[in-house]
Amino acid sequence: MNACQHFAGARPTRLYCRGDESNTYGTVNRLYGLIEYENGCVAVVESSKRTTLTQELQVACAQATLALPVAWTIYEDALLIERGDLPWPHPTTTNHTVAAADSYQLQLENFADVIEGSAPPLVPLAQSDLNTYTLEALLASAAAGRPIDVEVPPEIVRALPSASTA
After folding, report:
1. What pLDDT, on the 0 to 100 scale, is given for residue 4?
2. Which terminal residue of the chain, N or C, has fewer Cβ atoms less than 10 Å from its own Cβ?
3. pTM confidence score
């Protein structure tokens, strides 16, 4: 969710989600969502306990598509693939190396720095709140079986970084 909000650079306004729950545990088994943002960006999210594990992040822009096959736990160097759209039908491809990093360790270090007062949070609280409202809206849409608006309290909207409200 955070990657979607980050790359969209705007607040989500409307979404549609399909999914199902485990009858045994009451947990989400599958979730497939389409999120529309104020600035016209669209995000597609998917999560499923019924498929093989994937952590792919793909960002499609006007001039290129970026694909990072392992985006969340990069324990060894990973390949970021940049595909240009021209000249069609043989787009350019450029590979970039993303250095290994323990994202959980980095999050914990940032948390400790925030508590000590030596750094701001990498993800502001209002952004985390927005992510939570968006996830809740995805679940509500899946339960209702229809698109719904993402409703975020005004105080959270006001607290968002400017890039997330444009």
Report:
1. 93
2. C
3. 0.86
